[in-house]
Predict the structure.
Amino acid sequence: MGRSTAARRSRRYRLDVTAAPYALIAPFFLLFAAFGLFPLLYTGWVSLHTVSTLDPNHMTWRGVGNYTALWSDHVFWQSLRNTFIIGLLSAVPQLLVALELARLLDRRLRAGTFFRVALLAPYATSVAAAALIFQFVFQQNSAGFANWALHLFGIGPVAWEPGTWTSKFAVATIVFWRWTGYNTLIYLAAMQAVPTELYEAATLDGASRRQQFRKVTVPALRPTILFTAIISAIGSLQLFGEPYLFGGSGQGINGGPDSQYSTLALYVYRLGFSSEHLGRAAAVAWVIFFIAVAVAGVSALIAARLRRSV
Amino acid sequence: MTRFHRPPAGARQHAGPLTYLALAAVSAVSLFPLYFAVTAASSTQARIARTPPPLVPGGHLLQNLRAVWHYNGPGGHTLALPMVNSFIVASAVTASTVFFCTLAGFAFAKLRFAGRNVLLVLVVATIAMPPQLSVLPLFQLIAALHWTDQLQAVILPGLVTAFGVFFMRQYLAQSLPTELLEAARVDGANTLQLVWHVVFPAARPAMAVLGMLTFVEAWNDFLWPLIALTPSGNPTLQVALAGIGGGYNVDESVIMAGAVVTTVPLLVVFAVFGKRIVGGVMQGAVKG
């Protein structure tokens, strides 16, 4: 009797050990497949069809027609260009400023928590609220805050929203404002994880604080910098709420009268829910997908090289 | 001689007055847009149209808040509905993400099973995929199910994230001692008991961080809720705010009051739990 109980227990144990891992990952993979992976891949299938948003489950085969149409679609090209430009305008200063701020916060400091929370407050602000606040800051007339501040330096009022570059600058400012503090904390965390021995060695070699930062801190932070660059790149591909609400009720969905601050994600929304062409919207979404895959691939290559060089 | 003037090896530099000045200036810039929104939200339309723009709060905050509260017009729902909706959506998404991602993260970190590596690579590979790419088929889905303006339309797609699984895996792989699991096994615990009595207690700090990051993201989510819900129907706060900001002929000061109202709940949380949230974001960065 004792024997059979032991056998039963060991059988139950073996079943538990083999089956339980799948039971633990199953809920995640089921939900992930249903609402993440499947829609992601199915977007590619939709992009090969003519689909009206007003009758979204009625699809007519169109082959690659939605893609060839993009070739001569200047709003698409403009949105692609804008996505890159706004991405660079926001990410480059953002990461440089964050690196410098992290260096300051890494010092022995009173009220360190206050500064960190103050820097992180924009992250708690939603895209919608931030975009509306900055729309107000960048008002065209001389009563707008940005224009009033420029006027103090003797610069006349700028028509932010209609301008080709000023509008991109304003949209990039929203991104810059929301994410700089977040990236600062990421860099700070990475800085505090740099082994002290590296600094000790550098100090013995007579390196100044500046040199230590450039020769020890920045190289040690390379993987983190790569990580934040990827996050920024993927973030640029998702840029939607900022231009949409910055443009207001009239021009938001077009990204301005000349699409001067239209982005790829915004164009997906415009094609899908203003022009009511779900298939064409899916083609643009699939282009974003390819760019994201390329970003991931390139960053994986860089990461592999970094690992080898360390 | 110079030896003694060198900073002590490894010690962090003391912040000088310039550091404080710089940090104070940056903090001011960081907080200014929010402060400016409050001054505008407490002004009349006429006051904010003046030059220079108002830099101190006015006395119209209550009027503007009342206008925002009834943003949907007389007879329609008040802002209470989107507030409750946002709370329901963000809570449900957070609870589910933390729970299911901890289970899967534990399996990937500590259990052996066929296909583990392939599946983990799949998880990692999809972390960088913008979730917004899925909205078009999801729109077809909710159209077929008649789920427009139903909260499950925005809850279901957010129930798990690949990032969450990866995050929990990284944490548990480092912080959960395998000996602890083995000891519990020897005592006769099955996997379910392991999860309940060993994994969840050990994972609690990481679960709190993941929960906080997920909540902020769900609370602020915009594109998909804007497609699935309508401002006058059954919106979340962000969708309602887009309706307020995108409407014609709305007083700017009322729009700013809307921006303030939708932001305040999270800012209060940040002010109260500031230190822990900062620690959480930093921890998430290192582990993620």
In short: DSSP finds 15 helices and no strands in chain B.
